[in-house]
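Here comes a specimen:
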Amino acid sequence: MIERPDAMQRVRLAHTEVLLAQLRSAGPLSRAELIRLTGLSRTTLFDIIGDLIARGVVVEREPALSGHRGRGRPSTTVSLNPSAGRIVGIDLGRATITVIVATLGHDILARGSRPITLTAGPARRANAAIKLIDDLVQQHDIDLRALEAIGLGLPGLVAGRSRSAGDSGSSTSVAAKQVSTRIQDRYGVAVVTDNNSRLAALAEGTWGATRDVRDAIYVRWSDGVGGGLIVDGRLARGAHGAAGEIGHVSVEPDGDPCPCGGRGCLELLIRPSALIEQCARRGVTVADPADLVARAIAGEPIVSDVVRHAATLLGRVLSGMVVQLDPGKVAIGGTLAHAGETVLEPVRTAIGQLAIPGHTRRLDVVTAQFGDEGGALGAVAAALRLNMSEPLPALPTA
């Protein structure tokens, strides 16, 4: 058997993605309609459909003859196989890997998380994600032969591209490219890569706390501080893959240097490790981020004061974003979001005082719905929407 060169494989994969995107958005279509919509030749399209049917990704449906009034027999249609298609979402965070395996119908088949060493390199991180996927597949007896796409969330600057699209993704880090390439090589499907906080914003906008508004800000306040913007129903990535990087807004220009190259960044001042250090300087020992949150909720004076001050700093930075975007909601996720109103109230107050106080706007500041799974769920959403440019779906009216 002669193997196709890599370039031809990429073209074939891109053609397959275009066809599947049409079936996702339009539902069952005849081959003639698919030729018209995709621009593929008859030979190429029939070949791809044959392969997808053999893999169980799509199914062929006989025409419904009742009520048919046209000449001749109506055409058979092709549609996605909701019982066979598989999507994998990965949030490969700094310290934790989270994986979700779902169907085309948005049903979750398996989910799992596993810690990973902060110092692990790209190859080790990719292999750890692959191991978790394979373990979940084995434990839940999942057939990945019909795997369509993988969504991958990573920290840092990620351009938000598909590895199969032939785009070099110049703003994506070398490490991100190495991880996505390794995963694509293992599973042989398109890997949609984006910043994991942005993907969490996508999950909230698709199914979660901000799904009822067209414009929203999401903040992920954990070991890092990131975010994402939904603008007119679309996830904003920016010209260089840096949209939503709220943690790297400088609040103390003469402050400590940040790995991003700036000084006094918000993330340096409000990440959990920094807050634990602040408590220690005031004579209170806090064990870990969970202990920090628990004691803030309990109202311990010093811990509560440190957390509330950090939330106020976050609110001040958010106030500028609120002025520019005018969102309908701000959602706070991540470890510190578990503190509830201890965090939300100072954020709400700072925004109200600084974001055009005389403006009579309604702005809800709420806890994100999906917690630690938000990034992986957003990766699923990104993979489901591969090659689709329309905005997020509207809420069902029923």
Summary: The CA atoms of residues 307 and 327 lie 25 Å apart. The mean pLDDT is 87. The first helix runs from residue 6 to 26.
